[in-house]
């Protein structure tokens, strides 16, 4: 019997507070897989244990005939089985978006104490884990934990006082938490705070995915555009005009991209999406606000700082959308020159284009993760990764998207790490430099993209990659290890396939090589607690011949880098310890339970 490709499931596009308004009741198509009650599938297991009440709620059986025929249970706050369906559907959709953009399945093959598990370990989701206003990703449990609580009288909004609020019924919270788990799977060490940017990046990325995923819900977007579109007229194209004028007249008073974008209907839409994430004032106010490069210096709390990165990405998205819509507005121009109702066909086109641009940006941001260094991520690294990842897939940027992104990041004060200028060619990562100028080729790797790879072959690949790293340590920014290849660990390596706009398929390998040392982080490098200090390189290889396209590294041997991390440690240690826990000596990781409390 042929299996269907997708399974339709009903969800809230936002959360229950909006009722049926704004296209809130919607159906998403998630990849089909046979499911046991839970739902429990290959990469997700929903376990509905309520710790506070010490009980299990009856698990939903989405393969039940009746439920299948209805396209899943209808949205209901009172039925725990709908909560289970909702977390499954949104998490599944988020995983699918990552898998599509990265060009490989998400296997959750997480390393535990240096070993790779042979089988994928499903991400566990607890929709009623705790009775508090919180939701978080727990890397040790490899689980998402969602809380529920009674709305307080002071902050009820659309909710009745005393009514229960379930974080497991908020699209954005589920997408946000799932993204934390995915980023952690792709770049394990981004959870170690090594600068003010690391944890802020984790938060920003999770918000970026949640927001863009929202923009891919065409019905919700259409309804918003219809409601607010009456005010749309040519002025809404200002962001791009502002951009162009800056380029023409450098030195002129900079007209701020986002200030003008504020009249763009998508900005208010994004702000409303931000609102769905509870009390996230920083995010709401950053979206569409005039950029101030000095802000980045002032904000250190991960969400506040992350909001600046989210805003930079969305400035670019709004500008690209305006550019894509320019001709449509010119054509419709005369007709929609004042208040009045927006033409239905125009609104539809706008929503289609907004959705398309959102998908493009979402893919671009996720794909950039593969081009990030393995440790110590900064916003500037992410900018360079974005530009390189996009260039790698779409060398001709005839619409100038990359220019727009660079400009928007610059205006938010994001400085590219170790790049000579903000030009695209300076921002792109480079192939490794060799003494003879010839490229480096890694031979002997064995990946079976279609049938998967056995543990023996995986071990052989890991050995080849460690030796390759040791042999060319200099070119990859690695410290030449005293103990040979054993000093370099091939932490992850994946075959990926990406489809370019020309429809051409490209096969690549993405590899993380890691190194670490125990160093003292006490004052002047003496005494005090010892910490694991890491460096390493991400390599992107052409699959056909094993040649290295890019090496993106953080030097273990760099004294400047070590001093910077020490400085960060000295300055922020006390503050950090309020937010983070120290699970074991010498290692600090994010504790999302604490970071998310109150957000
Ligand atoms: Zn978060």
Summary, kept brief:
This protein is an alpha+beta fold and 599 residues long.
List the helices and strands and how they pair.
Blueprint: E1 6-12, E2 25-31, E3 44-46, E4 49-50, E5 55-56, H1 65-69, H2 80-102, E6 111-112, E7 115-116, E8 123-130, E9 135-138, E10 143-150, E11 164-166, H3 171-186, H4 196-215, H5 218-228, H6 238-248, H7 257-261, H8 265-275, H9 281-286, H10 295-298, H11 302-332, H12 344-368, H13 379-393, H14 401-411, H15 424-427, H16 455-471, E12 489-499, E13 505-520, E14 530-542, E15 548-554, H17 559-579, E16 581-584, E17 587-589, H18 592-596
Parallel strand pairs: 3-8, 8-10
Antiparallel strand pairs: 1-2, 4-5, 6-7, 9-10, 10-11, 12-13, 13-14, 14-15, 16-17
The structure holds zinc ion (ZN).
Computed Rg: 24 Å
Q: Main β-sheet, in a few words?
A: 5 strands, mixed
* N/C terminus separation: 47 Å
| Average pLDDT reading | 80
Please, how many helices? 18
The residue fraction in helices comes out at 40-55%
DSSP summary, beta strand count? 17
Give the distinct bound molecules: zinc ion
Globular, elongated, flat, extended or rod-shaped: what is the shape?
Answer: globular
Q: Give the helix/strand class.
A: alpha+beta
Q: How much strand content do the residues show?
A: 15-25%
**What low-confidence regions span 5 or more consecutive residues with pLDDT below 50?**
230-263, 334-339, 581-589
Describe the 3D structure.
By secondary structure, the chain is an alpha+beta fold. It is built from 18 helices and 17 strands. β9 and β10 (143-150) form a beta hairpin. α2 (80-102) crosses α3. The longest helix is centred in the middle third of the chain and has 31 residues, at 302-332. It is globular and about 65 Å long. The two termini are 47 Å apart. Residues 230-263, 334-339 and 581-589 have low confidence and may be disordered. It binds zinc ion.
């Amino acid at each position: 019997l042929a299996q269907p490709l997708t399974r339709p499931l009903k969800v809230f596009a936002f959360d229950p507070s909006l009722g049926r308004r704004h296209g809130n009741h919607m159906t998403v198509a998630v990849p089909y897989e046979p499911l046991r009650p839970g739902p429990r599938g290959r990469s997700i297991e929903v376990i509905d244990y309520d710790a506070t009440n010490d009980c299990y709620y009856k698990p939903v059986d989405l393969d039940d005939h009746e439920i299948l025929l209805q396209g899943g249970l209808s949205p209901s706050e009172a039925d725990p089985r709908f909560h289970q369906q909702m977390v499954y559907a949104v998490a599944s959709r988020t995983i699918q978006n990552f898998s599509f953009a990265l060009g490989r399945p998400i296997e959750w093959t997480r390393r535990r104490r240096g070993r790779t598990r042979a089988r994928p370990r499903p991400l566990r989701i607890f929709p009623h884990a705790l009775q508090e206003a919180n939701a978080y990703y727990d890397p040790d449990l490899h689980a998402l934990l969602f809380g529920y609580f009674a709305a307080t009288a002071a902050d009820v909004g659309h909710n009745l006082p005393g009514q229960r609020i379930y974080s497991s019924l908020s699209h954005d919270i589920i997408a946000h938490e799932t993204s934390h788990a995915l980023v952690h799977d792709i770049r394990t060490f981004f959870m170690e705070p090594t600068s003010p940017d690391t944890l802020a990046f984790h938060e920003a990325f999770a918000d970026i995915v949640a927001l863009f995923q929202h923009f891919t819900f065409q019905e919700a977007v259409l309804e918003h555009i219809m409601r607010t579109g009456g005010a749309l007229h040519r002025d809404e194209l200002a962001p791009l005009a502002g951009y162009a004028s800056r380029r023409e007249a450098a030195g002129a008073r900079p007209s701020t991209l986002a200030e003008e974008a504020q009249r763009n209907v998508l900005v208010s839409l994004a702000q409303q999406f931000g609102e769905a994430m509870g009390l996230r004032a920083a995010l709401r106010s950053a979206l569409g606000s005039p950029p101030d490069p000095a802000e980045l210096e002032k904000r250190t709390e991960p969400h506040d700082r992350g909001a600046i990165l989210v805003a930079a990405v969305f400035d670019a998205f709004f500008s690209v959308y305006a550019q894509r819509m320019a001709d449509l507005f010119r054509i419709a121009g005369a007709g929609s020159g004042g208040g009045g109702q927006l033409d239905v066909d125009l609104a539809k086109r706008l929503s289609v284009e907004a959705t398309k641009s959102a998908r493009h940006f979402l893919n671009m941001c996720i794909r950039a993760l593969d081009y990030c260094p393995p440790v110590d991520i900064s916003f500037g690294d992410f900018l360079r990764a974005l530009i390189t990842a996009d260039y790698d897939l779409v060398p001709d940027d005839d619409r100038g998207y990359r220019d727009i992104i660079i400009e928007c990041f610059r205006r938010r004060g994001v400085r590219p790490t170790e790049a000579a200028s903000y030009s695209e060619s300076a921002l792109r990562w480079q192939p490794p430099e060799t003494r003879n100028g010839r490229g480096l080729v890694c031979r002997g790797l064995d990946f079976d993209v279609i049938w998967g790879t056995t543990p023996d072959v995986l071990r052989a690949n890991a050995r080849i990659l460690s030796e390759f790293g040791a042999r060319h340590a200099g070119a990859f920014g690695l410290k030449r290890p005293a103990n040979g290849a054993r000093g370099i660990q091939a932490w992850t390596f994946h075959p990926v396939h990406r489809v370019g706009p020309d429809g051409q398929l490209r096969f690549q390998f993405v590899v993380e090589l890691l190194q670490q040392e125990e160093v003292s982080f006490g004052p002047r490098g003496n005494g005090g607690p010892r910490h694991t200090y890491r460096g390493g390189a991400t390599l992107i290889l052409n699959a056909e011949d094993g040649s290295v396209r890019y090496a993106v590294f953080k030097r273990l041997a760099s004294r400047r880098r070590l001093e910077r991390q020490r400085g960060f440690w000295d300055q922020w240690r006390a503050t950090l310890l309020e937010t983070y826990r120290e699970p074991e000596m010498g290692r600090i990781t994010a504790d999302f339970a604490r970071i998310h409390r109150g957000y």
